[in-house]
From TrEMBL:
It holds the Pfam family MFS_1. Residues 8-398 form the Major facilitator superfamily (MFS) profile domain. InterPro entries: MFS (IPR011701), MFS_dom (IPR020846), MFS_Exporter (IPR052714), MFS_trans_sf (IPR036259). Coiled coil: none annotated. Keywords: Membrane, Transmembrane, Transmembrane helix, Transport. GO terms for molecular function: transmembrane transporter activity. This is MFS transporter. It comes from the Bacteria. It is found in: Cell membrane. The lineage of its organism: Bacteria, Bacillati, Bacillota, Bacilli, Bacillales. The keyword Isomerase does not apply. It is a multi-pass membrane protein. The chain crosses the membrane at residues 12-32, 44-62, 74-92, 98-120, 132-154, 160-180, 224-246, 252-270, 282-303, 309-336, 343-366, 372-391.
Length: 403
């Protein structure tokens, strides 16, 4: 096999799968553990949100460090720190979980940037969207089995099984990660080397790059859509394990498994449909945001309508997740200036992290003041409001030169 499916890239996808396996379990265990200890939705939301909020803060800096030192060197350091974070989960409580989530958030900032930028730089343009889609697909694969495993661990009441699982994941991730390799395309290596030379003035560079969130229309539009959609995704991740208890015959494990399975299936079956030409397609993006709004409504009404509508929301949300991130990331890889591309994509991904964090931090107090159903209606309104951002009255944005 060649291109995005060659052996070096398959190893990177396997590494991605192992790395995110721990989080698929923690996303269920932490809310259940918090509720059992009497924590409020606000507290649970803060703990869940701390992970990607930390990732958001460090993600742009990760882009500059990776440009300067290379993805493999950074990757090996981060995998060691990640192993320490996973060990913390094995012997601490809610307070320790909060610290471990922050530490894991730092690791994820560098891990995901190292792999995604490495894939972008190593693949030719025609294979770029497939490589990004495969990475994203493997980051969701653990979500199929992880929630079921987490519920099984929780129901046994034996947290020693949870500890052994975290240790096993840390060891396997390290073994695969330390043998991974990433080879850059010649022009990508030159661009990275040039950008890395300015690493000494990283602070000024970050301020300049951050201004592009407003000044660059492509980055602004993509970031706004990703931020709002990720807020909805984050609310689902943080509170479905608790909300499912209020739904007749509802199961958080089945919901999360269905959603992850749809993400995986859609990214595999529809990967060739994801635009990879640097053009903006309003109808495609509007349809994706409508899926998010419809999924949120299904989840909200499931408290009275039952599990059928609950699981329908999982299917719709999964399709939206499968399409949105790789489409926007691939689009930006074409239209952003090559000299700033890595850092600006880092800022874009930081917006996705911020959205997921806000899904827990902001929506937790709303759930405390109102209800889970009302909170998910608000999520639907946010998704619908983004239709105005997704629509481009000019029809198609011309591809810009990235010299």
């Amino acid at each position: 096999m060649k291109g995005a499916l060659s052996w070096p890239f398959l190893r990177l996808y396997l590494l991605t799968l192992l790395y995110f396996s721990a989080n698929s379990i923690l996303n269920v265990i932490i809310p259940l553990k918090g509720e059992s200890l009497g924590a409020s939705n606000s507290t649970i939301g803060i703990i869940m949100g701390a992970y990607l909020l930390t990732t958001m803060v460090f993600r742009p800096w990760a882009g500059q460090f990776i440009q300067r030192y290379g993805p493999i060197r950074i990757l090996r350091i981060i995998l060691t720190i990640n192993g320490i974070a996973l060990l913390l989960y094995t012997f601490t409580g809610i307070g320790g979980y909060f610290f471990a989530r922050m530490l894991q958030g730092v690791c994820t900032a560098f891990f995901s940037m190292a792999l995604q930028l490495g894939i972008i730089d190593a693949l030719p343009e025609k294979d770029r969207s497939q490589g990004i889609s495969m990475y994203s697909l493997c980051s969701y694969l653990p979500g199929i089995i992880g929630p079921l495993l987490a519920i099984g661990i929780w129901q046994t009441g034996e947290m020693s099984i949870f500890a052994m699982t975290m240790i096993a994941i840390a060891v396997l991730t390290g073994l695969v990660g330390f043998t991974a390799t990433i080879e850059q395309q010649p022009e990508a290596g030159e661009a990275a080397g040039t950008a890395g030379a300015g690493g000494a003035n990283a602070g000024a560079g970050m301020l300049k790059a951050a201004s592009q969130l407003v000044r660059n229309p492509h980055l602004f539009r993509s970031s706004a859509l990703m931020l709002s959609a990720s807020l909805v995704f984050g609310a689902v991740t943080a509170f479905v394990p608790l909300y499912a208890l209020q739904i007749p015959q509802g199961s958080a494990a089945i919901y999360l498994m269905l959603q992850a399975a749809v993400v995986v299936a859609a990214r595999f079956l529809l990967k060739s449909k994801i635009p990879s030409d640097g053009k903006w397609r309003s109808s495609f993006m509007i349809g994706t945001m409508l899926l998010i709004a419809a999924a949120s409504l299904c989840i909200s009404f499931a408290a009275t309508a039952g599990a059928y509508l609950f699981y329908s929301g999982a299917l719709l949300m999964g399709v939206a997740q499968a399409l949105l991130y790789p489409t926007l990331t691939t689009y930006l890889s074409f239209v952003l200036p090559k000299s700033e591309r890595n850092v600006l994509i880092g800022l874009f991904i930081a917006m996705a992290d911020l959205g997921v964090s806000l899904g827990g931090i902001v929506m937790g107090p709303i759930a405390d003041l109102t209800s889970y159903s009302t909170m998910f209606i608000i999520c639907a309104v946010i998704g619908a409001a983004m239709l105005l951002v997704a629509y481009d009255r000019r029809g198609t944005l011309a591809k810009e030169k990235t010299a």
